[in-house]
Amino acid sequence: MKSSNDAREKPPRAEKLENVVIRAAGPDDATEIASLHNLPGYRYGTLRTPFHSTAEIRRHLESPAAGAYRLIAEHDGRTIGDIGLTPAGNPRRRHVATIGMGVHDEFAGRGVGSALMKAVLDIADNWLDLRRVELTVFSDNEPAIRLYERHGFVTEGCLKQFAFRDGHYVDAFTMARLKT
Question: What is the pLDDT of residues 48-69, one digit of tens each?
Answer without folding.
Answer: 888 989 999 999 999 999 999 9
